[in-house]
Structure formats: C-alpha cells, structure tokens
Amino acid sequence: FLHLQKKRRAATARRQHLKSAMLQLAVTEIEKEAAAKEVEKQNYLAEHCPPLSLPGSMQELQELCKKLHAKIESVDEERYDTEVKLQKTNKELEDLSQKLFDLRGKFKRPPLRRVRMSADAMLRALLGSKHKVCMDLRANLKQVKKEDTEKEKDLRDVGDWRKNIEEKSGMEGRKKMFEAGE
Predict the structure, then answer these.
(1) Judging by beta carbons within 10 Å of its beta carbon (0-12, 13-18, 19+), is residue 123 exposed, middle or buried?
(2) CA-to-CA separations, 147 to 150, 155, 159, in angstroms, rounded
(3) With 80 as the cut, is the pLDDT of residue 124 above it?
C-alpha cells in the first residue's frame, strides 16, 4: 500500500512538472509572437508612413492638409468597401452553414410538453374561427351487428383440425372423400 502511494506521488509530481514546463513554453511563445508583431508593425509604418516634414509657409501647410484630407478620404472609402465585403462574406458563411446544418438533418428538437386536447380544440387551434362543426369521433364508426355467419358456423363445427385430418387419413378417409365428391 505504501509503495502505491509513493508511485502516485511521483506520477502527480511528474504531471505537475510537465504542466509547469508546458506553461513556461507557452509564455515564451506568446512573448515571441508579441515581439514579432511589434517589429512587423514598425516595419509597416516605416514603409507606408514617411516621416512628416512640416513646411514653413502657410500655403505649403494648406496644400499638405489638402493632400492629407484626400488621403484620409481614399483610405476611408477603402475601409468602408472592405467592411461591406466582410459583412457580405459573413452573411454568405452563415447561410452556407445553415444549409449544411439543414442537409445534415441535425435539428435541435425543442422539449415538447404533453397537452391534452379534444379533437374539437385541435381543429379550432388549426383552423381558427372557421371551425364550427362539433366533431364526435365515435359518430362515424361503422355499426357491426353480431350475426353468426356461415363461415363462423363451419369453423365452429370443424373444431380441432387434428381430428379432421385423422378422419381423412387412410383408405377410409379417401373413400369418404370419394363418395362425398360424387
């Protein structure tokens, strides 16, 4: 028993050590990714945004402002177009995923409650105020009279089928059948 406890402790300690090692690796990977993103951002900004040089005269400043406004408008139009494309693509994705869900046939069935309803209440619920006929389900049933038909009498008279077979077996039975046929 003591031996098993030592093994369990060792296994637990090993699991804890592996878990902490995995967490250390994950933290270093996240830090590397963050640093790489920052470097990529700096490179992009250096490439697309040249350093700003402010001109000395008022007219040059106005021209720079006009250029910046034109640039802002074009970037804004691109952003709007991209957003519209993104929304359209997301809508298409939702539609396709819904079609896929429908094709698979995996519908989430809502929980149903058992409700006691008469036939009249069901018809009223389905047809609304149009339904005025009172429906008696037993009214349309066929009436059957208890009569002894010839088949039933024959079946009762025959009785046990084994006796019938025994009577017809052998030469005597064949003779009776032959005589009955004439």
Answers:
(1) middle
(2) 10, 14, 19
(3) no
